[in-house]
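To illustrate the input format used throughout this study, we show a single complete record. The first block contains the structure-token representation of the backbone; no residue identities are included at this stage. The design step must infer an amino acid for every position from geometry alone.
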């Protein structure tokens, strides 16, 4: 028996009408503004007025839609129902109205620094939201419904008072950026490992005492900040984060060792391990050949592994405040190094291989420091023979070492702008110092200088000259040529007078003549009176 075409046509028509009704129903459910009762609109406007929220200022920079500023709240119904970005940051709100859940077109919501103590559960109705910023508030917990924001990609919860995260945070599987900096988290739920799309995870300044091994499942992670927590160890699974480029573990944590698996982080460019209790650096660190910055300051490391020389891309190496008695010869292989900080160790000499660092621009080898009533540190008294080959040096710090003579190897460093030789035992300056024509800052305080050579007047770029606590009895008249000088510290010397030529220093802003026996001439007194000095000390 053949099927009646008219019946088939009617059935199809009914089916299409049913589908249309279903579509309309879905739109009504997804878009509350289609509902006939829109009294909530007036209510939300009233909430905005009561909280003194400014009228929405929507401006576009050079026609660029991405540069629009959406700060404030609209008072126009049509704008309100279509708005996709809402910025209420830095507006002191009494609370966020539950009616915000009706703004279902919102894609971005910024509630930074609005003095909130809680979020309404209705915020979970903003299903299209992909960026939610609630930083710098007083949130102690999140509504459990927050896990329904399944399109969220950027979630900033920094600077709140959170003590825990929702167990089912794994529902937010599209998250790429999660900022939990400065909260009170003591642990992470194991479900954190389900956030497979995370690229940036900031857990700085919490109270984490251990790190779940599940952290190793975040294989897309590129930046991880664990600084200022209370960690004493890292799980070996940290080595699974092979896309990691930045790892911060500085301050507060107390690691005593590193897992050897850290050597698997081949893409790592920045590693900060400052302020721990590390005694040994595993040789596997030499596998981190993409590193450009390595910070090991303030640990207990006595030896740097030879493998450190394999870090050919390293630009900055900070090892201040350790227990190094020598540097490995392989340090000379770091041909791209620009910044080297090895201050406050136990070095008595530098290897000549350090002179191979032809791109070095900043070198800090300051000496002593006090710790637990004990003074210890570097005690250099001479420099390697080839030190003058470091011609790109611009900043050099030898504070608090054991130099008795000005190192002549420094004279040919034509690009040097900052030189620190304070708190040594230098008795005189060579005439050749005048050849260091690019110097802008010269720190010689705490030495045994008796005089200054006339050639100091050739340092015409000098802005800062600190001669505090020496035994200088006279200032050469050539000081008149230092006409860019802004700071001159002559405190605690043996000066009885100043040369009249000092009055040529018209750019001086800070002058310290304390603890001398100076009698100022009327001309110098007049010069001081007319200077635009912000700090001047002459009292005894």
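Output of the design step:
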């Amino acid at each position: 028996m053949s099927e009646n075409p008219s019946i088939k046509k009617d059935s199809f028509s009914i089916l299409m009408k049913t589908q249309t009704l279903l579509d309309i129903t879905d739109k009504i459910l997804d878009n509350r503004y289609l509902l006939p009762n829109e009294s909530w609109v007036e209510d939300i406007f009233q909430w905005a007025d009561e909280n003194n929220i400014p009228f929405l200022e929507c401006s576009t920079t050079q026609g660029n839609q991405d540069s629009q500023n959406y700060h404030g709240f609209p008072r126009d119904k049509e704008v309100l129902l279509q708005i996709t970005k809402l910025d209420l940051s830095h507006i002191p709100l009494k609370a966020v109205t539950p009616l915000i859940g009706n703004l279902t077109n919102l894609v971005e919501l910024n509630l930074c620094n609005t003095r909130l103590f809680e979020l309404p559960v209705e915020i979970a109705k903003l299903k299209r939201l992909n960026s939610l910023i609630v930083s710098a508030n007083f949130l102690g917990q999140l509504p459990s419904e927050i896990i329904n924001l399944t399109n969220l990609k950027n979630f900033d919860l920094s600077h709140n008072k959170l003590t825990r995260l929702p167990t089912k945070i794994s529902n937010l599987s599209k998250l790429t950026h999660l900022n939990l900096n400065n909260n009170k988290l003591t642990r992470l739920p194991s479900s954190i490992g389900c956030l497979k799309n995370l690229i940036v995870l900031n857990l700085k300044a919490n109270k984490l005492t251990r790190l779940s091994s599940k952290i190793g499942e975040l294989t897309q992670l590129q930046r991880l900040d664990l600084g200022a927590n209370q960690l004493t160890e890292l799980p070996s699974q940290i080595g699974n984060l092979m896309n990691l480029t930045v790892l911060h573990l500085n301050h507060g944590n107390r690691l005593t060792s590193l897992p050897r698996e850290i050597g698997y982080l081949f893409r790592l460019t920045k590693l900060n391990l400052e302020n721990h209790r590390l005694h040994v650096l595993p040789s596997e660190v030499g596998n981190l050949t993409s590193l450009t910055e390595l910070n090991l300051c303030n640990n207990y490391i006595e030896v740097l592994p030879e493998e450190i020389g394999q870090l050919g891309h390293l630009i900055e190496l900070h090892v201040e405040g350790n227990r190094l008695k020598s540097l490995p010869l392989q340090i000379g292989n770091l041909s791209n190094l620009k910044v080297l900080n090895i201050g406050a160790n136990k070095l008595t000499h530098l290897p000549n291989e350090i002179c191979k660092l032809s791109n070095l621009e900043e070198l800090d080898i300051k000496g002593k420091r006090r710790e637990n009533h004990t003074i210890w540190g570097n005690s250099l008294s001479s420099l390697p023979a080839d030190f003058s080959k470091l011609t790109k040096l611009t900043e050099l710090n030898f504070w608090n070492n054991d130099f008795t003579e000005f190192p002549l190897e420094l004279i040919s460093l034509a690009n040097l702008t900052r030189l620190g030789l304070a708190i040594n035992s230098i008795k005189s300056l060579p005439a050749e110092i005048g050849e260091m024509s690019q110097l802008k800052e010269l720190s010689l305080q705490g030495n045994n200088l008796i005089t200054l050579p006339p050639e100091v007047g050739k340092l015409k770029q000098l802005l800062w000259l600190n001669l505090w606590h020496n035994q200088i009895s006279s200032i050469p008249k050539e000081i008149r040529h230092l006409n860019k000088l802004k700071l001159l510290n002559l405190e605690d010397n043996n000066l009885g007078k100043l040369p009249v030529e000092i009055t040529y220093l018209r750019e001086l802003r800070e002058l310290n003549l304390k603890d001398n026996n100076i009698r100022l001439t009327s001309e110098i007194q007049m010069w001081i009176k007319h200077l635009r000095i912000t700090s001047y000390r002459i009292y005894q």
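Structural context for interpreting the output: Residues 31-36, 59-65 have pLDDT under 50 and may be disordered. The longest strand covers residues 64-71.
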